[in-house]
Write a structure and sequence with these properties.
The complex is a heterodimer of chains A (253) and B (669).
Chain A: E1 7-15, E2 24-33, H1 39-52, E3 75-76, E4 79-80, E5 102-106, E6 115-117, E7 120-121, H2 124-133, H3 154-164, H4 171-175, H5 182-194, H6 196-199, H7 202-215, H8 226-230, H9 238-251
Parallel strand pairs in A: 1-5
Antiparallel strand pairs in A: 1-2, 3-4, 3-5, 6-7
Helix pairs in contact in A: 2-7, 3-5, 5-7, 5-9, 7-9
Chain B: H1 13-23, H2 29-32, E1 36-40, H3 44-56, E2 59-63, E3 81-82, H4 94-104, H5 111-131, E4 156-157, H6 163-181, E5 184-187, E6 190-198, E7 201-209, E8 215-219, E9 222-225, H7 246-253, E10 258-259, E11 264-270, E12 293-297, H8 300-307, E13 321-322, H9 324-328, H10 338-350, E14 364-367, H11 369-382, H12 390-416, E15 425-434, E16 437-438, E17 451-453, H13 471-491, H14 505-523, H15 530-544, H16 551-571, H17 583-607, H18 631-634, E18 636-641, E19 650-655
Parallel strand pairs in B: 1-2, 1-9, 2-5, 9-17
Antiparallel strand pairs in B: 3-4, 6-7, 7-8, 10-16, 10-18, 11-15, 12-13, 12-14, 14-15, 18-19
Helix pairs in contact in B: 1-5, 3-6, 3-13, 4-5, 5-13, 11-12, 15-16, 15-17, 16-17
The chains are: A alpha+beta (253), B alpha+beta (669).
Amino acid sequence: MSATEGLNLTLKVWRQKNDKEQGKMETYQVSDISPDSSFLEMMDILNEQLIAEDNEPVAFDHDCREGICGSCSMYINGEAHGPGREITTCQLHMREFKDGETIFIEPWRAKAFPVIKDLVVDRSAFDRVMNAGGFISVNTSGNTQDANAIPIDKHDADKAFDAATCIGCGACVASCKNASAMLFVSAKVSQLSLLPQGKVEAKERVQNMVKQMDEEGFGNCSNTGACEVECPKGISLENIARMNREYLKSGIS
Amino acid sequence: MSTLDSKIPEGPIAEKWTNHKNNIRLVNPANKRSIDVIVVGTGLAGGSAAATLAELGYNVKAFCYQDSPRRAHSIAAQGGINAAKNYQGDGDSTYRLFYDTVKGGDYRSREANVYRLAEVSTNIIDQCVAQGVPFARDYGGLLDNRSFGGVQVSRTFYAKGQTGQQLLLGAYSAMSRQIGKGKITMYNRHEMMDLVMVDGKARGIIARNLVTGEIERHSAHAVVVGSGGYGNVFFLSTNAMGSNVSAGWKIHKKGAYFANPCFTQIHPTCIPQHGDQQSKLTLMSESLRNDGRIWVPAKKEDAEAIRAGKLKPTDLKEEDRDYYLERRYPSFGNLVPRDVASRAAKERCDEGFGVGTNETGEAVYLDFSSAIMRYGQEEANVKGLHNASDKEIKELGTKVVEAKYGNLFQMYEKITADNPYETPMKIYPAVHYTMGGVWVDYNLMTTIPGCYAIGEANFSDHGANRLGASALMQGLADGYFVLPYTIGDYLADDIRTGEISTDSKEFEEAEKSVKEQVDFFVNNKGKHSVDYFHKLLGKIMWNKVGMARNEKGLKEAIAEIKELREQFWKEVSVPGSADGINQELEKAGRVADFLELGELFARDALERNESCGGHFREEYKTEEGEALRDDKNFTYVAAWEYTGEPSKAKLHKEELKYENIELKTRSYK
Ligand SMILES: Cc1cc2nc3c(=O)[nH]c(=O)nc-3n(C[C@H](O)[C@H](O)[C@H](O)COP(=O)(O)OP(=O)(O)OC[C@H]3O[C@@H](n4cnc5c(N)ncnc54)[C@H](O)[C@@H]3O)c2cc1C
Ligand code: SF4
Ligand code: FES
């Protein structure tokens, strides 16, 4: 790949000092970016450049850089995690961009996810929804029954797994015009309600999680499906339908 | 001279843990309510420990530097978790898992700890299934298994290539339940900056709130460190960007011995480095070696032509390929342990057979074409397609491989823009895991009373080399099934202590020194960024303390790291202020500690005049180039006591006794 030319780019980046002050877009230039670099490596180069000029680097969340921790969270050219399907920002590579292009980089925007600095937002609302019911009430004593005591239909197990792959990144919320968290919440509700171990407290779970979701200020779901399109893990809208059924069922006791 | 007491219980190995549990002191439920425990880290180890301690009734304060406990680095583990369930009926047992782990670790781990690990491994799987962890299942609805390197049974449980994610989310859900109940207070985006000791005991920590910048005091009756491994001392590794040694290093400086720092695992199957702008390396799970065959061209001219882009790997005929692992190790083949596979790859590349198109030329192939055809043929037979064409067989086989490894193949393609179903993957070894860590006794307590270390942060179970799928097992064993009980024995003395006040001179002093360091960084008008130093440190480590080490290189490394550290403290530049989010400031503190650890690491490697596991000293090898152990002189754990300068640390030896397994030359031929 060494023969490929480096990219020269204009970056428009959201800068905001903290959760109180107003932010604005700033313009930066970066040059000679290898097309094999990841988007976040490009951000590292920008930051090194800012530090060398004695300016503050751009704050952004990231950790695993392989699409699994759910930390990275940039809104790039009007799309959560940028162009490309089923990837996170850290999996986006510069070969997706053209030399001379201008790239817009913003934080997630949602009432329930306040910006705390530059591209960093506070997603603790997701944790609170999980604390309200995203679990099976079993103690970690090790005195449970043998793992193979209850066979689970492979089809259900696979569906539960697919729902369980949600990385809690919040792209669904950021992409939704109502900032709804339905895809995220329904993924957990589905995973647990598809498994025999999770059925026991299915009613309380869905009620408690939905209640907390509403209290956090997430919007309503109006079925536009934008969340599914932008979700890096391909979490399906089917989960929302399943959660709605669970929720209805839980009312008719 | 040794002050080390490993506290291994008496009795036959199979009864030690049960007897110990029956004899240690307990804290009754009412008293647990007045006892606080700090847990630093929410990975598999810290997360499972926090949840279990809270269920038992203790008040837990948990800390992580990410914005949510669910993002701890354990989330990235791909391949699987071992357990001696013997569901496949292939002769597995607690003893066999114990044996494989001790042998895999090249006879440098503590027998009693490893046996306990094997013993509780089966509970982990039961526990996780009860929590709703969606492990892979077969069509009969039962749990499926796969094989990992260094063993000849199928005992690895998995959830596609996201096993760590699913296990961590299980632990996170157990934590969430306790957070909801108010039994765990969760401190997200908080970094432990120092340990506070009162009257010789661990009684709290100083933490920095990474959002407000505030330096906070937190007290407890015991402090548990589950802060993960220190592979990022090499700058480039498969670890998360924020993975660090600081929590472990801070307790080391307060009196916890640091054991076997030089035992580091270089994983054989990672995506090769693309260039200088690289920030981290990506692992391709070891599970791929179940079906992938590793090779390089048999002729140097072919390798040269490939590197020059004039030849494609698929152009090479079978007889022109060198499946060097199958050639050198016929009985384990592609499933030799990691250290062996990594060194073999380096050997081929050093000899000029590498196929990388990057500057170094360092890469070997991991090829799925035979697996695709083999599975395709099986599928065709099952479907009764007796005259299937090669193309049809390939299509069927591709589907099987996709079902097994789809997400890994996809990840590879996203990073490299190559399609691994059509052309072999290119891989090369990278730093992955650290077997060394804080020294702990059988109860997982460090040499500081009341301070514990669990998970990758401690040293105890993997000796000089860890087998695949054993880190997840150890993290969860420590957190769910070991620490929560052994800690009771210590805390039984604290039932009348009452809350530990943070209004003491010990807390004040610790806070003051943390503040001084933070102020130093933001006020130092240096000329280089933190990464500048981190990258230089990484280069020294990789070149002189990496896959092959020798006396001369190690001595140079010690001197160079020392020099680099001095330069760092003069010339580092940290823009911004101490209040509020400042990611450069966070990195500065971590790199400062890596610059000390690196020196001790090299010293430890220099001291160990033998080759074992991941530690390969060029002076000590057999004629065939295999590692040459020296059991007479080095069957010990090197536990280092901090004395002011890292390479002047004082060595304490814990002799390792093998009463149940005979020490043998490890052979995978
Ligand atoms: C890519 C990859 C794949 C792997 N695959 C496998 C596999 O298939 N099977 C297997 O068995 N093992 C695997 N491993 C190894 C295994 O994942 C790790 O060893 C294990 O998850 C470590 O768990 P832990 O709980 O000890 O630490 P971690 O999960 O690293 O957690 C560390 C925690 O400590 C916190 N922390 C760190 N420092 C501080 C501080 N100063 N203050 C506050 N908090 C702090 C972090 O926030 C985090 O919560 C893999 C590792 C990698 C890198
Ligand atoms: S549902 Fe998808 S987009 Fe939403 S948090 Fe989960 S992974 Fe992210
Ligand atoms: S950094 Fe972990 S998902 Fe992007």
